[in-house]
What we know:
Blueprint: H1 17-32, H2 38-50, H3 54-61, E1 76-82, E2 85-88, E3 93-94, E4 97-103, E5 106-110, E6 115-116, E7 120-128, E8 131-135, E9 140-150, E10 153-156, E11 168-177, E12 180-184
Parallel strand pairs: 1-4, 2-5, 3-6, 4-7, 5-8, 7-11, 8-12, 9-11, 10-12
Helix pairs in contact: 1-2, 1-3
Amino acid sequence: xxxxxxxxxxxxxxxxxxxxxxxxxxxxxxxxxxxxxxxxxxxxxxxxxxxxxxxxxxxxxxxxxxxxxxxxxxxxxxxxxxxxxxxxxxxxxxxxxxxxxxxxxxxxxxxxxxxxxxxxxxxxxxxxxxxxxxxxxxxxxxxxxxxxxxxxxxxxxxxxxxxxxxxxxxxxxxxxxxxxxxxxxxxxxxxx
Length: 192
């Protein structure tokens, strides 16, 4: 998660808005992972937004592990299928927008360990006869009020920790007929 300065770059060079935004994204992800507290997040984001140089920004993420294996987040990802199921779980990178077209199948998006690099996720749903299941974690807020439903049902349960800082706002829109949207935290298993 640490922001690396290119070898040829001096830490005294002026930071751009994009440099500051990248650090804020990294800090938000670290808070979502539980690596820094909400108070630390507020302090570091304020410092990042007022940073003048790349060196000042690098200090803010120096104690966070690097995510070299994580692929860059895409702006739009499309899931299209019929009579099948699709699952995104583990350390997958959450895009800014998901387009889901599904007929008589299920889609599960597990956000509990996902790499969150944007503060919003827009889901454009076109589903008939299936289930969209979102497994959330503290700090993920889901709004399904813009979803047009016909002979369908939505069930949105909040995350277990309502005091957690918001790291991702998910807006579900589009249409759902003869299906279901279920939003909930992952199930707890005894002994874990």
